[in-house]
Design a protein that fits this description.
- By secondary structure, this protein is an alpha/beta fold.
- It is 42% helix and 23% strand.
- It contains eight helices and twelve strands.
- The chain has a five-stranded parallel beta sheet with strand order 2-1-3-4-5, sandwiched between helices.
- A hairpin with a 2-residue loop joins strand 6 and strand 7.
- Helix 6 packs across helix 8.
- The protein starts with a strand and ends with a strand.
- The mean pLDDT is 87.
């Protein structure tokens, strides 16, 4: 079985070497970059299965890099590793396409678990390249695209995952915990707050069709109503 390729971006040489060697000892194939300007080129060359990005980097920050990577590959998992601790920073990381966030200092065991969890979620959420109708919209899950007539909206990875869950449970109730576990891999308070943000975004995207509605069932979950 081929090794999973990781693109690891870290500008602290000592930390970078330790993490790279630890990942390689777990049978991952690791390509490391220390300068933001090198990352997009390396991503195209390596075609990694997952990216682990620091945010504060020389020449180009991790947020910008995540956006560029999302333009190339909308579905590759991205983990941010950073010393930033403000909630706004974490939310920005998710908004630009990050799948997970790990604060420094961290343990290698935690990083390995998060990498393995994201890889498993990505594999289990492969969806066919087929459009489904949601009221007046057409949603193509693995193209991350929501069409409304001639208007097209590109969704983020998590937005597409969340909308896919809603579609799978159309006119039925889905529990909040099930959504959190599938999209984020855990139901922590921080991820719960992020879910609220993403639900608000989806409601905004779908508001042009009053027949499509995400109803919050307080303390339980959501009911997705659509034709």
């Amino acid at each position: 079985m081929p090794k999973v390729k990781i693109l690891y971006v870290e500008d602290e040489p000592f930390l970078g070497r330790i993490v790279k060697e630890s990942l390689e000892s777990r049978d991952f194939e690791v390509t490391m970059a220390m300068d933001g300007n090198d990352v997009v080129r390396l991503f195209n060359e390596v075609q990694p299965g997952i990216c682990v990005l620091d945010i504060m980097l020389p020449n180009r920050d991790g947020y910008s890099l995540a956006g560029a990577i999302r333009e190339i590959n909308p579905s590759v998992p991205i983990i941010f590793v950073t010393a930033k601790t403000q909630t706004d920073d974490l939310i920005k990381g998710f908004e630009v396409g990050g799948n997970d966030y790990l604060r420094k200092p961290f343990s290698m065991e935690e990083l390995i678990v998060r990498i393995s969890n994201l890889l498993q979620l990505t594999r289990s959420d492969k969806t066919p390249n087929e459009s489904v109708s949601i009221g007046k919209f057409e949603f193509t899950p693995n193209r991350y695209e929501l069409l409304n007539g001639s208007s097209s909206r590109k969704l983020s990875h998590r937005e597409a995952m969340l909308l896919q869950i809603m579609v799978e449970n159309k006119n039925a109730m889905v529990s909040r915990k099930d959504v959190l576990m599938r999209v984020w891999g855990d139901d922590s308070f921080f991820n719960s707050r992020n879910l609220d943000v993403y639900i608000t975004k989806l409601r905004e995207y779908l508001r042009e069709d009053p027949s499509v509605e995400i109803i919050t069932i307080k303390g339980v979950g959501y009911r997705f109503v659509a034709k």
